[in-house]
């Protein structure tokens, strides 16, 4: 896990959540360990923000013990993904763990949905 991201130039970059809401990422940011500063972290937080709002997501994470927060973030991302698909008229018929692609071998980052196949 990480508290902040160091760029190639040596400056500290905001986490994906702070980058999305355009605020300074402070040391100890509750979102930093779960949403990296790369495009994918920002994209995943954008989906969570659209469905739950930044304030509600922050309050939820603060009320959860640290050892459960990764599971909560993954669940928020799953739910945001499903709600976003539904709002676009896509009904994933086979949304299961096998169809969620993890982009980091440590499983620390939110998944991407794959294999929409016969979705209507």
Structure explained in plain terms:
By secondary structure, this protein is mainly alpha-helical. Helices cover 40% and strands 7% of the residues. It has four helices and four strands; from the N terminus they run E-E-H-H-H-H-E-E. It has helices at residues 16-21, 39-52, 54-62, 69-87; strands at residues 5-6, 12-13, 100-101, 112-113. The strands form two sheets. A two-stranded antiparallel sheet has the order 1-2. It has a two-stranded antiparallel sheet with strand order 3-4. Strand 1 and strand 2 form a beta hairpin. The longest helix has 19 residues, at 69-87. The termini are far apart.
Short description:
The protein is 40% helix and 7% strand.
Strand and helix map with partners:
Layout: E1 5-6, E2 12-13, H1 16-21, H2 39-52, H3 54-62, H4 69-87, E3 100-101, E4 112-113
Antiparallel strand pairs: 1-2, 3-4
Helix pairs in contact: 2-3, 2-4
């Amino acid at each position: 896990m990480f508290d902040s991201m160091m760029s190639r130039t040596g400056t500290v970059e905001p986490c994906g959540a702070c980058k999305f809401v355009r605020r300074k990422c402070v040391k100890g940011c509750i979102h930093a360990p779960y949403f990296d500063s790369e495009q994918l972290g920002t994209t995943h937080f954008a989906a969570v923000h659209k469905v739950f709002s930044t304030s509600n997501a922050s309050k939820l994470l603060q009320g959860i013990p640290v050892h459960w927060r990764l599971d909560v973030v993954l669940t928020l991302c799953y739910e945001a993904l499903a709600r976003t698909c539904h709002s676009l008229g896509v009904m994933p018929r086979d949304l299961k763990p096998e169809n969620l692609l993890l982009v980091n071998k440590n499983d620390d980052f939110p998944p991407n949905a794959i294999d929409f196949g016969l979705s209507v």
